Amino acid sequence: MKILSVDNLTKYFGGFAAVKNLTFSLQKGQITSIIGPNGAGKTTAIRLISGELNPTTGSIRLKDKDITNSSINKNALLGISRTFQVPAVFNCLTVFDNLKMAIHTKIKDKKDREDRCKSLLDEVGMSKEMNAYPAALPNHKKRILEWCMSAIQDPEIILMDELGAGLSDEELTILYDHIIKKVDKFTPLFIEHRLEFVFRISEKVIVLNQGTKLAEGTAKEILCNEKVKEAYFGNNCQYGG
Amino acid sequence: MIKSTNRFNKFQKEDILFSIIIFAFIAFTFFQEASTLSLYYIGFISNIIIFSILSLSFMFLYSYTGLLSMATSAFYMVGAYGGIFAIKYLGNNFFWGLIASLVLTGLFAFIVGSVANLTRGVYFMLITLGFSMFPYLLSRGPLKEFTRGQSGMHLRKLPSFIFCIDLENPYSFLIFVITILIIVYITFRLLPSTHFGKALVSIKENELKMKSLGYNTWRIKTIAVIINGLLAGLSGYLFLLKNLSISPVMGTYFVAAKAIFCSLIGGINIVLGPIIGTLSWYLVEEFLVIPGFLEIILGSGLVLVILFFPLGITGTLTNLGSTTGKNKGRGKV
Amino acid sequence: MFLKAFFNWFATWGIIALSLSLYYILFSLGIVLTFGMHKVVNFAHGALYMVGAYCGYIIYCSTNNFVLALLFGFSGSFILGALLERMIICRLYNSDSTITFLITFALSFIIIGIVKLVASAQFRTIKMPEALSKRIIMGDIRIEIYRLFFIIISIMILIGMHIFLTKTKIGNIVRAGTSNSIAVEILGINVSNFFTLTFALGSGIAGLCGVLFAPLFTALYPTMGDEIILWGFVVVIIGGLGNFYGSIIGGIILGLLHSFGSLYLREYVLIFTYILVIIILTIRPQGILGGRE
Prior knowledge:
The complex is a heterotrimer.
Chain A lengths: L1 E12 L2 E12 L4 E4 L6 H9 L6 E6 L2 E2 L5 H7 L1 E4 L11 H9 L6 H15 L14 H13 L5 E5 L7 H13 L5 E5 L3 H7 L2 E6 L2 E6 L1 H5 L2 H8 L8
Chain B lengths: L12 H18 L5 H30 L6 H18 L4 H23 L4 H20 L3 H4 L5 E2 L6 E2 L2 E2 L3 H21 L4 H11 L1 H6 L4 H27 L1 E2 L6 H14 L5 H16 L5 H16 L3 H9 L13
Antiparallel strand pairs in B: 1-4, 2-3
Helix pairs in contact in B: 1-7, 2-7, 2-10, 2-11, 2-12, 3-4, 3-5, 3-10, 4-5, 4-10, 8-10, 11-12, 11-14, 12-14
Chain C lengths: L1 H37 L6 H19 L2 H22 L9 H23 L15 E4 L2 E4 H23 L1 H11 L1 H6 L4 H23 L11 H15 L4 H18 L4 H18 L10
Antiparallel strand pairs in C: 1-2
Helix pairs in contact in C: 1-5, 1-6, 1-8, 1-9, 1-10, 2-3, 2-4, 2-8, 2-9, 3-8, 5-6, 9-10, 10-11
């Protein structure tokens, strides 16, 4: 079932087209990644979908609802969640309070909220750090916390902008394992530069270059795509399928 | 004011100091012979408390949201004028005055907040500065026949009793405003542990993230401005009750600047800060009679505080005793 | 017949409006340059204006030489501006704008306090120099010669500024700096001197403006900068917060509003001005010509 469809999405900043005629869709439960060189328009696309920016032309639909010019907070309530390149957690709140802040807009019952937060922290193994402040946490735990804040809202889709930035391979693997476990509940869209992970877990890969879609397909198809090789990988086809 | 967003930590150092100050006010008032001088000082302390409430209203908004509301003095003026109109035309009753004062201020604050929160930073400040002119200009211009313009308005008779408090008696009036100050203080001490308080500081830290979580940050910030307005309006109403005579000067931006000075010099990190700051201002003003000295000392004080002691008098003092990093990074200006 | 009456009325009031506009424009120059280059909201500008007026007053009282008074008005503010910039303002560049507002406000407070201490708060006046105090009366038109003098001098200063900004090397750097200060720094020029120069220049012109306009205006008093500083910001906001030419438009609009508006109820005009400012700040903060964000 199509959960997100993006049609001819275009965004101009003055005379510069950050995103041009971008069309793709996400299937519920399918893991999709967007890759591409720097400046390709990946983050702009995320910002358009989340509602931070309004497109110049084009449309975005969440299931059947048109959210093209909808605002960030309305989109969040409809089920679009987002993580940021720099882990966005609140340093002024404890870990537990961070989660409670995230769940507050979705669940009304106080006891229910606290229970859910506690059980999610248990699942990811951060119960001990419940009353710690994020400043005291190592980087990968901040990431996990940020992801928890998205997950606890039971979103439809989570847009993850360079989730792996600053994480070691093991840390990223652990985080991805948590995410994969919940894939039947929400649909992830990754923006990633860590290509070995992208090709290991993605069912669909979209390649952007200079604001337009260069290619779309399974990991194997993209790896051997000539145009993609030229624009992005160079001529080393070293990532095994 | 946002030392810890955790539990209400009972009796921090600041609470002890606050209690001492309140006790000192009361002791000073009651344990001396009644004379014109002591009556003067009772009035003096009452003025300090009333202005502390105004400073607290500004400080709440600034420390929880980072927004600088130059309209604080306009709210102060609307509170006073709203009260006086109600008392004159609806009945010489404390409660009519209070309701009118708060309703009018609340409405005005809603308008100011709604518009100003469409922007941020210096634009927010300039918009509130623009709005702050309206009560002043309206009272001297289009509404002049109601407000007697620059000469201000006067109450001949106070509503003398509310419950069993005699407002005309300076001693009981002092206890009355002290009680209000205590209530305001406790509310602000409890605020960091409420969801609303936490939401405000989270918006201040990262508004985009809060929006991404589903929060209508514009609405939350506007509510904060309304709180700023209501508290400032209350302060204005108390000023009316104390002084019986108000004028458009209350709404000029100097009053807002004075509240800002008091808050920042006193300390933005704890609730007690604006109270200490206001106390300092009034003491300096009282004992330094040479013209110009007040401005020089307080102006320099503010510059020093901003550049070298961002936590203000109280913040720096409380930090001296603190060994953990608990307070660091929380009081960033 | 009506045309003639209108023309008379327009000539009389037009001169008044023009002089008021130029007064606002000259005053706002310093604010525009400082905000454009550094995003610094300089609330001390009114105090600098006031200091210049007082310097001019002191000289005028002792020497009765108006030209000398103008020079000292300019220099007094210029020097004070330079000192302030070197000692404090330069630390504020690229700081949070609420901080710069608070510090510059505190500075103005201190300056006012010092003036109050030294010169006392009593009102003083600078009388119009004899030679310029005549009026031209042609039928129904009344024009004060002093206003013409003011207009001519102001326009000369503005033309001078324009030439400076567009034709000289330093001026071009200043102009570039008001839209992109980082690029200017990358050029490797010792920017701090330029920053001091621009700030001092803006302050000096404000001080000069203080002496120049004083005979037309009211008295000199320590807080005389407080009202005009608001108008300075209004001018700059209408025109666009970093835009020099925008502030010219802003000054013209405000001058027209205030002079023709004061024929009717002054407070209505002021309220309208502030509503306009709020609308601009909300919808189009770049002002009419667009400035720095």
